Task: structure prediction
Amino acid sequence: MPWERGGCTPVGWGQRLTLSPRPQSQRAAALGVLFALIMLLIIYSSGNGSEVFPYSRLRGRARRPPDLKKWGVKSGYLPVCGNKTLSARCHQCVIVTSSSHLLGTHLGTVIDGAECTIRMNDAPTTGYSADVGNKTSFRVVAHSSLYRVLKRPQEFVNKTPETIFIFWGPPTKMQKSLLKIIQRVCASFPNMTAYVVSPSRMKQFDDLFRGETGKDREKSRSWLSTGWFTMVIAVELCDAIHVYGMVPPSYCGRHPPPRRLPYHYYEPKGPDECTTYIHNERSRRGNHHRFITEKRVFASWAGLYNITFSHPTWT
Result:
């Protein structure tokens, strides 16, 4: 019995065996070329920093962000030292960033004259008070900066005993060893006031990021920055907010600075600010802060929540 070439199916009686011009091979070659073109397009697009993590508003409907002032601070921040709920309220607040843009500004007196002053992580005032002031009403601290803050109590705890600390971090980390460390420091400094962000509020922060950017934080491999937490907390606590030292979202792309500026004013040999912002915004591997995307969100909030920016001034 004759057999088809390359197969195991018998050819019917009286049927002629013919070889076709192999149209399947031609289609496979065409698909291969198309696939190669698509891959080249993806690679080209990935080189464009503005498209790697595109900021996208939710399309197809007009929307406003949730009213952050109705979140309720009492349920969102759990007391670590004592049992008092967070009930502070300020009419006018200033956020002092950690940016080197503050160096040489001589803003210290203005900042100290504000009703409430908010600082972040382990940004010191000693040695920099002429530019950043000394007053600290609130200090928002990430779990990754907790050790650096608490191991220097004379700078961050005892120097300004009126400071209210708000620590944030993944609930699995904050509820174990880090929470015990905060409690031990509180025992040594009875006047210290500290809170941790509740698990439910942490989820709200993630949901807010997704709603404002159109990106799921975990799926997009993003970490929320301390600046994100600080801005939202300030909106909750303050009627008006002035931010010192935060660059606008277009600063590093359209108007590169004429000179290198360290990311932190207290780390002159640290990484460059714009280099850090651009690297984090473009990166696809590993988890990164999306600083530029967050600043676009802040710009959209400015009119809603009475937020102004200076040094540099946002237009």
User: Anything to note?
Assistant: Confidence is low (pLDDT under 50) at residues 1-21, 38-51, 56-62.
